[in-house]
């Protein structure tokens, strides 16, 4: 691991973290979630003791009836119809409507995790309510005329718990934290209180039924979301951007500064996200130190590792294992891989940016890959690509072939031009000793990326200097939608369509290279995934009513 | 409140429910509902589901081979579904509500005190199908039998024998004695 060079930082003043000292960003255990869990367990224990023992149950029922008698004994003609409507809407329609809004909204916002957590949260509430209700077996208020709709035991109140749960899940899935979420909580509190009042007024619930159920409805989604989708990792936001990008302000920003200082001797003053539109597997950053020197960094976290796993699973199912779709088993390995690839490319004479080091933010969970910042570099699509740049690009592929390397993600966003020199960046997918198919795809993608800012004819003619016609034909025979990086694919589908067509006219004809790889493993995996999806879907559909969605 | 509760017969299913986060393992209200048993269970709640009824149904020990499947109790009444290992799934359904549509049922001597009985036998063989009604002041209990083809109609006699009608006054007295000074 090298120190920051003279161009990008001062000579490192490392500080070794002694044993026992926490890392810059300790693994997040949500203290609020733990506090909620502890409070909820305590409350549940007291609650269980009260209702599973005769004497406290009698006492609390008497207090409940005392509390509700002024309401139910003095029902007002003008108020009763409204309370009955609220009782019916809250028990039957509100949960369904809000629930589907949460589910569809989360899916529309591409928050599959939040959608699944919502289902888990409502199912957990339903499970808790069901279990407790059957054990307590509390009847509806005694000595009271009931004028509302109800079903099953009174304690806990199922509709109050599910309605509260759905409102909290709405906030945690769809409402940005500040200032809207606080307002939503206030509104939710008002709605639940009104519904609870209607439940008591119509005589279907005791006050304690409402109170206990609202507690369950708040605690369960808060615990589930805070534990499995913490805001710092899965933020709810509506500005454009990819979910892979992490928030580098606040606690994480401070941790990055501390880690950079201790591990690389670089006193970061500014941490600026950059190039987010062209990256999906990490959070690229420009980090400026106190003296104005700049380095480039990529932040990798377990979120990116999970994304990588899902991406590769999807590719394996759709196309078979494309020789190399092995998933990474840890963030550390992911970042080590890219760091090593920077050296491998450098050794092969391929222009990239010089590696500086790996910075540990949270052991095994979050790392920063630090490299040279390419000053005054612009994406290849932003410049007029001349013969020299075309030759550099093609030569770059030739060097990769000679060195037994493949970049696997050649696209305009990863081709930077700095002072007339073409450099390739983002080596996360790079591979040593790739298959011939991979090498061919690299060539086709490079030719396309160059031709988008020049012409297919020029690139083709220059390619024939370095590559044989067979090799060029193989490159385009191996290329189709799946082989293009997403940025290149969207360009090819739009304005770049004619460029691809021109190449196909220019290159010698050749049978397309099949990208489908069938194996027993793929068949088994496909069946397994299909089985899980069908099972989960059928469970979900058959339990829609139980979790308040039907 | 102990006297109002039934034994915990569904604890295994309920545990599955919590572990499975509602994954189809008895998290619904009706599947987790205790049956209205004459020694407790949901008898009070069933009585609350039909406030004007002078009697309320409850079950003694079920005959061999019969089991409760789902129980729904709400403001409109109580519905109990029962399976039988001989008569088939959902072979008997008991509905307790304020009124019954007895159709062409004919009155026969009642085996339950305080209620008149009406029978409507659609078919004896194959597959016994019949409805039996017990009408009383303010309420009605209706049996619907729909047996598998090879099941004997005598199975209905066995399950009918498990049904009791308990007086509202008796329930109120029990509440006062074991719980609080209130009525249904």
| Strand-pairing-aware structural class of chain B | alpha+beta
Provide the helix percentage of chain A.
55-70%
Give the rounded overall mean pLDDT of chain B: 86
Shape of chain A: elongated
Low-confidence stretches of chain B: 1-10, 21-26
Counting DSSP H or I runs of 4 or more residues, the number of helices of chain B is 5
Shape of chain B: globular
Number of domains of chain A: 4
Terminal-residue CA separation of chain A: 58 Å
Number of distinct beta strands of chain A: 10
Based on CA atoms alone, the radius of gyration of chain B comes out at: 17 Å
Instruction: Sketch the topology of chain A as an H/E string, one letter per element.
Output: HHHHHHHHEEEHHEEEHEEEEHHHHHH
Of all chain pairs, the largest interface belongs to: A-B, 43 and 41 residues
Strands ordered across the widest β-sheet of chain B: 4-5-6-10-9-8-7
Say how many strands of chain B there are: 11
Approximately what portion of the residues of chain A adopt beta-strand conformation?
5-15%
Uncertain runs of chain A are 6-11
> Roughly how many Å is the radius of gyration of chain A?
30 Å
Q: Give the strand order, joined by hyphens, for the main sheet of chain A.
A: 1-2-3-5-4
Query: What percentage of amino acids of chain B are in beta strands?
Result: 35-45%
Tally of alpha and pi helices of chain A? 17
Overview of the molecule:
The complex is a heterodimer of chains A (550) and B (184). By secondary structure, chain A is of the alpha+beta class. Chain A folds into 4 domains: 31-238; 250-372, 2-Layer Sandwich (Phosphorylase Kinase, domain 1); 378-506, Transferase(Phosphotransferase), domain 1; 518-550. Helices cover 55% and strands 9% of the residues of chain A. Chain A has 17 helices and 10 strands. Chain A has helices spanning 31-52, 54-73, 80-108, 112-136, 158-174, 177-201, 207-228, 250-264, 302-319, 331-347, 387-403, 436-451, 456-466, 469-477, 486-493, 497-506, 520-542; strands spanning 268-273, 283-289, 294-301, 355-362, 366-372, 378-379, 405-406, 415-418, 421-424, 431-432. In chain A, the strands form 3 sheets. Chain A has a 5-stranded antiparallel sheet with strand order 1-2-3-5-4, with helices on both faces. In chain A, a hairpin with a 2-residue loop joins strand 8 (415-418) and strand 9. In chain A, helix 1 crosses helix 2 (54-73). Residues 6-11 of chain A have low confidence and may be disordered. Chain B has one domain. In chain B, 21% of the residues lie in helices and 37% in strands. In chain B, a hairpin with a 5-residue loop joins strand 8 (116-123) and strand 9. Chain B starts with 10 loop residues before the first helix and ends in a 6-residue tail after the last helix. At the A-B interface, helix 2, helix 4 and helix 17 of A face helix 1, helix 2, strand 2, helix 3 and strand 4 of B.
């Amino acid at each position: 691991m090298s120190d920051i060079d003279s161009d990008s930082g001062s000579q490192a003043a490392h500080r070794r973290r002694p044993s026992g000292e926490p890392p810059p960003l300790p693994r997040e255990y949500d203290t609020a979630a733990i506090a909620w869990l502890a409070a909820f367990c305590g409350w549940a224990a007291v609650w269980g003791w009260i209702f599973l023992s005769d004497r406290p149950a009698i006492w609390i029922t008497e207090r409940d009836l005392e509390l509700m008698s002024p309401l139910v004994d003095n029902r007002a003609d003008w108020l009763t119809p409204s309370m009955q409507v609220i009782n019916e809407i809250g028990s039957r329609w509100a949960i369904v409507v809000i629930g589907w809004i949460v589910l569809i909204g989360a899916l529309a916002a591409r928050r599959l995790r939040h959608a699944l957590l919502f289902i888990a949260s409502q199912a957990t509430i339903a499970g808790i309510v069901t279990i407790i209700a059957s054990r307590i077996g509390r009847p509806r208020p005694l000595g009271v005329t009931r004028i509302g709709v109800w079903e099953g035991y009174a304690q806990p109140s199922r509709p109050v718990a599910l309605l509260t749960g759905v409102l909290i899940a709405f906030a945690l899935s769809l409402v940005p934290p500040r200032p809207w979420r606080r307002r939503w909580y206030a509104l939710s509190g008002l709605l639940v209180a009104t519904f609870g009042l209607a439940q008591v007024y119509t005589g279907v619930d005791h006050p304690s039924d409402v109170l206990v159920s609202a507690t369950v409805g708040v605690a369960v989604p808060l615990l589930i979301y805070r534990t499995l989708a913490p805001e710092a990792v899965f933020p709810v936001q509506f500005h454009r951007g990819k979910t892979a990008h992490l928030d580098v302000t606040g606690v994480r920003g401070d941790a990055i500064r501390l880690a950079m200082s201790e591990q690389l001797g670089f006193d970061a003053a500014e941490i600026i996200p950059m190039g987010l539109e062209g990256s999906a597997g990490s959070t690229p950053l420009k980090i400026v130190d106190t003296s104005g020197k700049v380095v480039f960094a990529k932040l990798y976290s377990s979120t990116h590792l999970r994304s990588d796993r899902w991406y590769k699973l999807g590719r394996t199912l759709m196309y078979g294992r494309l020789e190399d779709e092995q998933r990474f088993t840890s963030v550390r390995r992911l970042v080590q891989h890219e760091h090593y690839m920077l050296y491998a490319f450098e050794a092969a004479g391929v222009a990239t940016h010089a590696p500086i080091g790996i910075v540990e933010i949270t052991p095994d969970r979050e790392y920063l890959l630090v490299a040279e910042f390419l000053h005054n570099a612009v994406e290849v699509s932003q410049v007029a690509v001349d013969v020299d740049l075309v030759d550099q690009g093609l030569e770059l592929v030739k060097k990769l072939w000679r060195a037994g390397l493949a970049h696997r993600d050649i696209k305009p966003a990863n081709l930077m031009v700095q002072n007339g020199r073409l450099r390739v960046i983002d080596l996360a997918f790079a591979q040593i000793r790739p298959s011939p198919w991979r090498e061919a795809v690299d060539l086709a993608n490079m030719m396309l990326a160059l031709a988008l800012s020049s012409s297919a004819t020029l690139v083709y003619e220059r390619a024939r200097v370095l590559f044989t016609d067979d090799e060029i034909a193989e490159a385009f025979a191996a290329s189709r939608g799946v082989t293009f990086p997403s940025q290149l694919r969207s360009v090819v589908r739009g304005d770049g369509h004619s460029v691809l067509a021109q190449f196909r006219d220019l290159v010698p004809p050749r049978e397309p290279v099949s990208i489908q790889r069938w194996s027993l493993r793929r068949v088994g995996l496909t069946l397994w995934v299909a089985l899980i999806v069908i099972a989960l879907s059928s469970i979900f559909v058959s339990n829609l009513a139980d979790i308040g969605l039907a | 409140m102990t006297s109002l509760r039934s034994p915990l017969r569904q604890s295994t299913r309920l545990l599955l429910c919590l572990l499975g986060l509602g994954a189809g393992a008895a998290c619904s209200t009706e599947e987790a509902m205790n049956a209205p048993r004459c020694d407790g269970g949901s008898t009070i709640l069933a009585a609350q589901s039909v406030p004007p009824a002078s009697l309320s149904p409850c079950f003694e020990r079920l005959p061999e081979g019969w089991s409760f499947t789902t129980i729904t109790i709400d403001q409109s009444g109580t519905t109990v579904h029962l399976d039988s290992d001989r008569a088939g799934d959902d072979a008997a359904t008991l509905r307790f509500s304020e009124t019954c549509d007895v159709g062409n049922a004919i009155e026969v001597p009642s085996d339950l005190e305080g209620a008149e009985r009406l029978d409507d036998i659609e078919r004896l063989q194959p597959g016994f199908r019949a409805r039996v009604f017990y009408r009383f002041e303010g309420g009605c209990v209706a049996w619907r039998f729909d047996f598998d083809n090879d099941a004997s109609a005598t199975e209905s006699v066995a399950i009918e024998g498990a049904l009791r009608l308990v007086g509202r006054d008796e329930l109120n007295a029990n509440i006062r004695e074991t719980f609080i000074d209130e009525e249904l």
